[in-house]
Amino acid sequence: MAGPFSSHGVNDSGRIPVLERLPGISVFFPAYNEAENIGGLVQRALEVLPTVAERFEIIVVDDGSTDATAAKVEELASSHPELRLVRHNGNKGYGAALRTGFASAREAIIFFTDGDGQFDIGEIDRLIPLLGPAEIAAGYRTERRDPLYRSLNAGLFNLLIRTFFGLRHRDLNCAFKLIRREVLDAVILTSNGALINAELLIKARRAGFRIAQTGVSHYPRTKGTQTGANPAVIIRMFREVFGLWLEQKRERARPPRK
């Protein structure tokens, strides 16, 4: 198996040479009641990011957590100026957390993964080479480490998006994506819920941006509680799918500008 940065070429110190590192990157983690996971995730990011970028920032978007998530981040931020906490007043939803992360990012290249620790940010090196030919580099889980019902829900969701929008990318909701800012400047995201990843890819493709994918590792959740299969989350997602379909239908029906 290749080493973690072999695609870039590694020097004797094990780091990516400065000329091959990104000039800057914003990394953010949406988190809801992830007090048991967020500290380890931030520490891992602090280890990895200096090897892939000359300049970086880390943002935790706390989506109205009722546990000690915010306190954990504030404690770490007191000794790590690269880290910032952005808080929602109440739980607004996964899509809202991602939109806040995108809006808070200051660098031209933006990466996000979830605050539950099911992905290893060390695998960001798999995405970076894809940004040459593409504006979005998206991971897909080579082996999903979730309960069976979540895998079934994901398969049905992918089928739904493929049927309504013709988007055939693998594992649409994989929370391991690297994006150039020009994509986010060109598309308007409105989802507050689980549709957000698909909305991003659908609108980016429609705007002419290129999307490349590669496999990434996925790990079982060992701490905290999953909320993605909550019935309210699923119902909101179906409403948002229908709303996005109507929006695109109206756009296609508009006469072209003269």
Commentary on this structure:
This protein starts with 24 loop residues before the first strand and ends in a 5-residue tail after the last helix. The protein is 36% helix and 16% strand. The protein is of the alpha/beta class. The longest helix has 23 residues, at 231-253. It has a seven-stranded mixed β-sheet with strand order 3-2-1-4-6-5-7, sandwiched between helices. The model is unreliable at 1-19 (pLDDT under 50). The chain has a single domain (18-251), classed as Spore Coat Polysaccharide Biosynthesis Protein SpsA, Chain A.
**Overall residue-averaged pLDDT value:** 87
How many separate structural domains? 1
CATH domain topology: Spore Coat Polysaccharide Biosynthesis Protein SpsA, Chain A
Q: Name the CATH architecture.
A: Alpha-Beta Complex
Number of helices: 7
CATH class: Alpha Beta
Strand order of the largest sheet: 3-2-1-4-6-5-7
CATH superfamily: Spore Coat Polysaccharide Biosynthesis Protein SpsA, Chain A
Write down the Rg: 18 Å
Q: Give the overall shape, derived from the CA principal axes.
A: globular
**How far is the N terminus from the C terminus?**
55 Å
Question: What is the helix fraction of residues, given as a range?
Answer: 25-40%
Q: SSE string, helix = H, strand = E?
A: EHEHEHEEHEHHEH
Ranges where pLDDT stays below 50 over 5 or more residues in a row are 1-19
- The fraction of residues assigned to DSSP E strands is 15-25%
Q: Major beta sheet, specifics?
A: 7 strands, mixed
Q: Please count the beta strands (DSSP E, at least 2 residues each).
A: 7
